[in-house]
Design goal:
By secondary structure, the protein is of the alpha/beta class. 53% of the residues lie in helices and 21% in strands. It has eleven helices and eight strands.
């Protein structure tokens, strides 16, 4: 049996909780297990597997920790250093886009910096090894603040998000969005199969789109919310199709 334990300060427990489900899913693929335990001022996460699965388990843990730092930790860091008086929805959307910005290069850098080993302190790695990344994130915050006045205008706000997303490697080439009863469905073809997602509202739709960063976005039948429609066009250069309408006529 092979076992290791990692930990994080209790004040940063959300870092581990945020990837708990993903970790469990990844570990199932290599017949490994994990368990969280809050003790004193630290949250511990123990991992275990059969010796022959050691390499696979360590790779799975590393993948999840890279995602943790690149998404959840980056989000917290930027939020702490980018205090703006924007409306909540607009501010949250900006944060999500800044987190997605340059993610491929950040994943590569994190892959070099993170070495999974027993006793590793996740907050220690953040404090002492991620200086280059934190400098980049702080610079992004400074640049955004210096242009803060423009973020209240829809056109310039959309233009900024468009620029940021242009630096995000797409997870899908072509994506179609369809509205039904105020909710949205996204469909498209992935290399590994078909993507089919449901978004409960416009914000959730935008979160999906920022993460997927499609090269081509098709609005099938139109979007009733004018501001959302303008945002999809302004940020993703969305095109409108009447496929469903034409099918109904037939």
């Amino acid at each position: 049996m092979f076992q290791i334990t990692v930990s994080v300060d209790a004040s940063k427990a959300d870092w581990l909780y945020s990837v708990e489900d993903v970790i469990k899913s990844k570990l199932e693929e290599c017949s490994a297990v994990s368990a969280l335990n809050l003790s004193g001022r630290r949250l511990y996460c123990g991992f275990g597997c059969e010796t022959e699965s050691r390499t696979l388990m360590l790779a799975a843990i590393k993948e999840c920790l890279i995602e943790m730092y690149a998404v959840y930790t980056k989000f917290d860091y930027i939020k702490q250093n980018l205090l703006l008086g924007l409306p909540t929805a607009r501010y949250e959307l900006l944060l999500r886009t800044l987190v997605a910005f340059d993610r491929e290069n950040e994943h590569k850098l994190l892959a070099k910096l993170i070495k999974v080993e027993d006793g590793m302190a996740l907050d220690g790695i953040f404090n002492f090894k991620l200086g280059e990344l934190k400098d980049r994130w702080l610079e992004i915050c400074k640049l955004t603040k210096s242009n803060g006045a423009y973020l209240y205008d829809n056109a310039t706000y959309n233009e900024l998000l468009r620029f940021l997303i242009s630096a995000v490697d797409p997870k899908i080439n072509k994506l179609t969005v369809y509205e039904a009863d105020g909710k949205y469905r996204l469909t498209g073809a992935l290399k590994t199969g078909t993507l089919d997602l449901n978004a409960g509202d416009g914000m959730e739709l935008m979160y999906y789109l920022i993460d997927l960063a499609p090269l081509e976005l098709i609005i099938d039948g139109g979007i009733s919310n004018r501001e959302l429609s303008d945002r999809l066009i302004g940020i993703f250069d969305a095109k409108t199709s009447d496929t469903r309408k034409n099918k109904t006529k037939k």
